[in-house]
Amino acid sequence: MSRRLGDIADVLGLGVDGDPDLMIDGVATLANAGPSQLGFLANPRYRQQLDDCRAGAVLIHPDERSHWRGAALLSRHPYADFARAAALFENCADLPAGIHPSAVINDDATVDAAAHVGAHVSIGARSRVEAGAVIGPGCVIGEDCVVGRDSRLLSRVSLVCRVRLGERVLVHPGAVIGADGFGLAMHDGRWIKVPQQGGVVIGDDCEIGANTCIDRGALDDTVLEEDVRLDNLVQIGHNVVIGAHTAMAGCCAVAGSARIGRYCLIAGGVGIAGHIEIADKVTVTAMSLVTHSIREPGTYSSGTPLMPNADWRRSAVQFKRLQRKNDKDAASSGRNARNSEE
Question: What CA dihedral angle connects 310, 314, 316 and 318, to 10 degrees?
């Protein structure tokens, strides 16, 4: 799948500095790129790799051009444009429209003639699969679900019930969307299960990672707005709302009824308590625990950064001493207040 460097530049709307007829057959890192591949420099920390780079061309910011001797595509946003360039070389097989003989489709379900339904798929009553959608092998679509135009369920995806996917949604293997939310009420020493009567609504261009779980709402829906990106092994509780263009890395967990704003970045292993709100354009760093609402944009962290064990133990001792000091100060303030009253 070779392409002229000039043609790549035209598609991406970039300038070419060098031979536009150079043939490129793929993309790679600066360290591993060969003479027929396109590399990229998005982070100045890797600038020294340009010295030994064998790439045929490099996608690079104009301010960094002087550090590279070969052909270049000039970009103000090198990482984003590299992602677009890589997509030009992605070789995904076009699956033919039609339904595999082993699929089981309920009589009340609707599958567009331009959709692909793979082997051992099950589609429940009143569900709809729209044109261009791909339902991979082993997927289970329950009742009252919608898979929007050009969406892809790669394999073994479960849409339990009342799940509505927008257009161009990508769901990776093992994801479970629309299972019961964790709704329980205690009565007379025993748990009573609260019926989960809502659904899940996922907007256009979202991506759901492998083995991620998104629970359906108790009454209202759980909602992901457009272009939300969830990594693998993410847990989204019932009635959570995630704003457009927010991305969450692996092993995050969001408890029920939390609301996360637009353009947020939630790093790996973050826990978010239920019934709180996070403003737009908030970044939460890895392994943080969010226990209260965040009202202003910015970067937030919690926890103790990694350090040698001996240093950590000394710090833990200091934490205890701080608490004892605070207790003594509070007691002293109380005595002083009583003495003043007397």
Answer: -170
